[in-house]
Amino acid sequence: MIRPNASVMLEVRDLTAKIEDRTILKGIHFTVRAGEVHAIMGPNGSGKSTFAKVLAGHPAYEVMRGEVLFEGKNLLSLTPEERARAGVFLGFQYPVEVPGVSNSSFLRLAYNTIQSARALEELDPLEFDDFVREKMKSLEMDPAFLERSVNAGFSGGEKKRNEILQMSLLAPRLAILDETDSGLDIDALRVVARGVNKLHTPEMGLVLVTHYQRLLNYIEPDYVHVMEGGRIIKTGDKSLALELEARGYDWVATESKGKAAA
Amino acid sequence: MHVQNQNNEYLEKLLQGSDAVADAGANWLRVLRMRAVERANEMSVPTTRDEEWRFTDLSSLYKIPFRPVSNAPVLAESGLTDFFVPEAHTRLVFVDGHYAANLSSVAVQQGVTVASLANLPASAEAMLEMRLGKLASIDNDVFAAVNTAFLRDGALVHIARGYTSDAPIHLLFVASSKQAAAYPRVLVVAEPETECAIVEDFVGVGDDAAYLTDSVSEIHVGKQARVSHVKLQREMHSAFHIANTSVNVASSGFYAMWTVALGARLSRHNLSIVQAGEGTEFTVDGLALIGGGQLADMHSSIDHAHAYGRSRQLHKTVAGGAAHAVFNGKILVREGAQQTDSGQQSRNLLISDKAHVDTKPQLEIFADDVKCAHGATVGQIEAEELFYLKSRGLSDTTARNLLTYAFAAQIIERIPVKSLANQLVKIVLEQTHMKGTA
Fold it and tell me: Which residues 103-122 of chain A have a CB within 8 Å of chain B?
């Protein structure tokens, strides 16, 4: 939802980052206002997943230049847990399995940590159980997931749903969903998209990192950005996604190079 | 040569007092003890020059002349209830090696005999003579020989043919005296077509003190019998714990062991499982969770001597502080033991820079139609897992503790006695926190 007077939630200026000796992000400029839905698309290796991870504070990446302001604060000086507590949520492309830790105790631990950081009420196991089951119902998740170990042995679709469940519990200000559609069949995709749409409020910024247009049939973006070689090379509205679907990515790169040469 | 003499001196000191029990019991028992004393005198205590003790230096043990106590203190039950296992209907308690009738309780069940050896009816004598001292070798394990030299009492579990013990049997060995040596002894005889679960539990009470537990357990698993066995070592932090578990499994028998090492400054568990007939199944799960200056050493030997044997072993260690974990897992598949299916995994998690682990899988295979898989890993907490948990708001410490706990929980969750598993979960959560930072 584009509202001209909405406050700026995320402002990224000239973000440049590397992993080991490889520079992946080469000067990203990107702004999200409250309520907006941004899709970041691009071919494999364009740096879109790296961008998502750098925003969440992944320790393997080193920021070399640029700045990231989240609600006016310097996001890059915060640890990953501080970012989460401040309201940044990353939905993982590959959610990590934690065998031996039950999903319910993990979810409750995360929920209460965030609640306590925001000076909100924590829930005891019984209260939390009611609360999480309500959330799961709206995401059409089987409550049996609570008893299983975190993501261990989950199918691709189950893992992604578990990510959205976490998003719904942690109530972020800014949610970045990294390839949430990958590995989902069409039914699972619909359920996940419906869940995300329900959670998306006019106060929340939403960034969808995706390779394919199909997710955007269900979650309508206000802006579509194309990444290539560690930069955003084109920004448009949702029609750009359809055009990318029809024509692929090459023409954008060519157009962008032409502009640069001219 | 000098060291050798010193070591023999230590052995002599350990053996002092064994003559005090020399007259106790039946004739055959006196002979068994005498042979053990002789054998012990012919051996010397191990040093790191012995291949079997390469990574485990016992010189700190040899500085203290541990002696058995002649009279154990009478402990109040109230001080021990935390150690009790609600699922167990029968509990035998030994304090500093002496049977404590006031703390023990035995539920009567037909076909199931649980008693201290000294209190056995005369009718059990023949069975005892046939079984006691037959599995734990006094010929090449000096600590088993010393234990046998002091053998006067112990715990007996006998399941008569065709019977199933309806609850786990708890054998609790309590150490309470400084500089004391205790020689716990366990004999389990599961006759054919029986089933039972044993919890062998080593604890310390009172102020932390140096003491020695030198225990021997012999487990006879009859044809088509099923024995589950939990060994829990939660000694005091200055204690020494050396244990020998010797198991013999007849055809189509099943033996499952969970061995958990949490306490003691130095602990060593020698586990030997011998397949005595076709079609046996063994599972061995191990967990050592240590920190500070602790050392925990697990030496296991699984001997597939017949065809159609199956064994699964998973040994996990979590080492923090400057702790040292040792695992030596021998799998022997003898000639003719065709269709053996054996798997062994050693997984080690180091949670500090100074902790270290020595792990040595040792496969000796003399049959050609067998499956033997093994693997060993030593690692630290995965950065990707840590990031995932932190991205959900968990602090670095909480995330690390949770992952360490998860690593250990895989073993704990498999322990069939739920109250014990729950106790261990609590202990592990507390200890991962402490040991990670210690």
Answer: 106, 109-110, 113-114, 117
